[in-house]
Specification:
CATH topology: TIM Barrel
Strand content: 25-35%
CATH architecture: Alpha-Beta Barrel
CATH superfamily: Aldolase class I
Number of helices: 11
Structural class: alpha/beta
Order of helices and strands: EEEHEHHEHEHHEEEHEHEHEHH
Distance between the termini: 14 Å
Largest sheet: 8 strands, parallel, barrel
Number of strands: 12
Shape: globular
Radius of gyration: 16 Å
């Protein structure tokens, strides 16, 4: 999936607009305009993959930004989509519409065998979102804590056919205070499938640190939108990993 470590820009969508949240908390969003325009900006700057989350779907369980997502799917990039995918039918519908990878969160926690069902039809199409706060998996838009260990969860989903794991360290997400490589490495070392790290990137040094783990990619949101660094500089910071 990732022959070289990849920097993946996030285009999170709420009420039809590209936004970034702080710590995954609703009401903390900063708005950055049209989602398709944001995606094309990152593609023009060198992005190969766009990470797209329907935040309305993540919080409310009902996807409301299909048109904006489809516009991004129609760009030249690989597109992975999450947020509000609450049934295998919804996941397969997205994959049939041109989405390259769906991101399953709450659904995978509540019905793990769904991962296997969808993966049988789309072997490279399922990423499972393992979101952790205080060392435990959280679901329902990061609002509900479970007692599940993130590394254990990742290993289980690998056995069910997941093509990769999206690991979000919610404790540092959106705060521009830096990453924690230890939780990322713990999850990445537990599986043989790619792990995409997410949460806390604020500097090029953060990206370089994550690229030194066994993770395959990193999702970057707020730091790019707030121009802490350019996407090109972020990509260049990982070149030694190729």
């Amino acid at each position: 999936m990732f022959p070289a470590f990849e920097v993946i820009p996030a285009v999170d969508i709420q009420d039809g607009q590209a936004v970034q949240l702080v710590g995954g908390e609703r009401g903390t969003e900063t708005t950055y305009g049209d989602p398709e325009r944001a995606a094309r900006r990152w593609i023009d700057a060198g992005a190969e993959t766009i990470h797209c989350v329907d935040l309305d779907g993540a919080f409310d369980g009902e996807r409301k930004n299909e048109a904006a997502i489809q516009a991004i799917v129609d760009t030249p990039a690989t597109v992975q989509v999450g947020g509000g995918i609450r049934s295998p039918e919804a996941a397969i519908s997205l994959l049939n519409s041109g989405v390259d990878r769906v991101i399953l969160g709450t659904l995978a926690v509540e019905e793990p065998t769904v991962v296997e069902t969808i993966s049988e039809q789309y072997p490279d199409g399922v990423l499972v979102s393992v979101d952790a706060r205080d060392g435990a998996v959280v679901v329902e838009g990061w609002t509900e804590r479970t007692e599940i260990d993130p590394a254990t969860a990742a290993s289980r989903y690998e056995s069910l056919g997941a093509a990769g794991i999206l690991f979000t360290d919610v404790d540092v997400e959106g705060q521009l205070e830096g990453v924690r490589t230890e939780p990322v490495e713990r999850v990445a070392s537990a599986v043989d499938i790619p792990v995409i790290a997410s949460g806390g990137v604020s500097t090029l040094e953060d990206i370089e640190a994550l690229s030194k783990t066994t993770a395959g990619a990193v999702v970057v949101g707020t730091a790019l939108y707030e121009r802490a660094f350019t996407l090109q500089a972020a990509i260049e910071a990982t070149h030694y990993r190729e």
